[in-house]
Amino acid sequence: MDSSEAPLTRRQRWERATNLPLMALAVVFLVLYAWRVLDTDVSPHLDAALVWADIAIWAIFAVDFAVRLRLSTDRLRFVRKHPLDLLVVLVPPFRPLRLVRAALLLLDSLNRATKPRTRLVTFVATSSLLILLLSSLAFFDAEYGAPESKIKTFGDALWWSAVSVTTVGYGDVYPVTTEGRLVSLVLMTLGIGLISFAIGTMTSWVVEQLKTVDDAADRAERTLTELVDEVRSLRAEVAELRTRAQEPPG
């Protein structure tokens, strides 16, 4: 370790040691959750086993959050800075969002010089894909088999999620259950936030590019002005030398 680096705190050491195992658990949960939702003919015994596995994974995430909170010197600040981890514990279906944090850590380890905007774009892109998948699974779980439901396949749920998260709302697929409406409310709220962030990021990027072009044009104009002044100075010197050369010797 570089001697210039600050020593890791107890919480940081815990996070470094548990990040990969918890990321693997997030993937396992995503697979188990998708299995329970998409396999409509799962046996009662297997379904019970999947439920208990889900509870065990949730308990591990809850213990991890509690340990990290206890090891923090400023616990209120820790909660404010880690809303995603709190959401993972409070809302079990969002445990795969732990993969977002893992993606940022991986990006940071691959390139320490990564720009903050790149990290934000990575965060939003990964979050968007996971939210789209999770909301589709939750919506399919709530709507499939319900009376008058338009959801016949998981593809229908994916289509509904894509339409809802972009706030397009064609109206061809809509929730008919209370659970489905709750999923819709959460997804539309997240969709507005994601779209607003995407538009803001794109606008900021365009403004930055225009500023870069303007700065380059200003530098080119200053350079051209300096060259013109230099040429004029050289012409004046040449004219003076010619005048001296034409003077008769004294």
TrEMBL record:
Main subcellular location of this protein, as a coarse class: membrane
Keywords: Coiled coil, Ion channel, Ion transport, Membrane, Transmembrane, Transmembrane helix, Transport
GO cellular component: voltage-gated potassium channel complex
Compartments, as annotated in UniProt: Membrane
TM segment ranges: 20-38, 50-71, 120-140, 182-207
Entry coiled-coil feature ranges: 210-244
Keyword Membrane in record: yes
InterPro entries xrefs: K_chnl_dom, VG_K_chnl
Gene3D superfamilies noted in UniProt: 1.10.287.70
Domain of life: Bacteria
One biological process term in Gene Ontology: action potential
Ranges of residues in domain Potassium channel: 131-207
Protein name (database record): Voltage-gated potassium channel
Bilayer topology: Multi-pass membrane protein
